Amino acid sequence: DAMVIQNPRYQVTQFGKPVTLSCSQTLNHNVMYWYQQKSSQAPKLLFHYYDKDFNNEADTPDNFQSRRPNTSFCFLDIRSPGLGDAAMYLCATSMRQGRTGYTFGSGTRLTVV
Amino acid sequence: AQSVSQHNHHVILSEAASLELGCNYSYGGTVNLFWYVQYPGQHLQLLLKYFSGDPLVKGIKGFEAEFIKSKFSFNLRKPSVQWSDTAEYFCAVNNFNKFYFGSGTKLNVKP
User: Fold this and answer.
1) Who among A44, A98, A100 is closest to B97 (CB)?
2) Is A58 near chain B, with CB under 8 Å?
């Protein structure tokens, strides 16, 4: 089945230790997004790729970076995780213009110790 | 900037009660509108979407939503809720490849 896969499902990292979350898709969607969702809050858009074009949200901290080496894969790099970065990180994809809606991955829950 | 408002943060209903969750958005141009549901411990799933045509949209599991352009609203409804509808519901607006989510409404259906 075509889908969005996030690995790992749960990630524990040490304070200040770089961590990478991965997302892959078999839908061949143009656009890939990373969202941060903290408990009882709406998902917050961090950035998105439209094909190879990277689009950062103005309030996304510099600590968060992303890479999209090809259509299928997108990575979220957190250079120096702080306790406040503990959250669920959601990857989503859509076709251009987003008219079909998002397809979400199951998320990676990040714990910072 | 685009914003999406969900005024009901927490709703508690008994089974068979009717549901209406409010959603208002701030953008005046062409938008695509969505409702997503997040069951406990699961990922976000699409309930329904609107981008043109009949403003009354029917989605999965008996949900529907009505787009009222003059009110910038896209309220979600269900005539009779079930215990299995207990979840968090997010309204979202799409414009130029970006999705903006409301803060969510937690629905708790008592059996």
Assistant:
1) A98
2) no
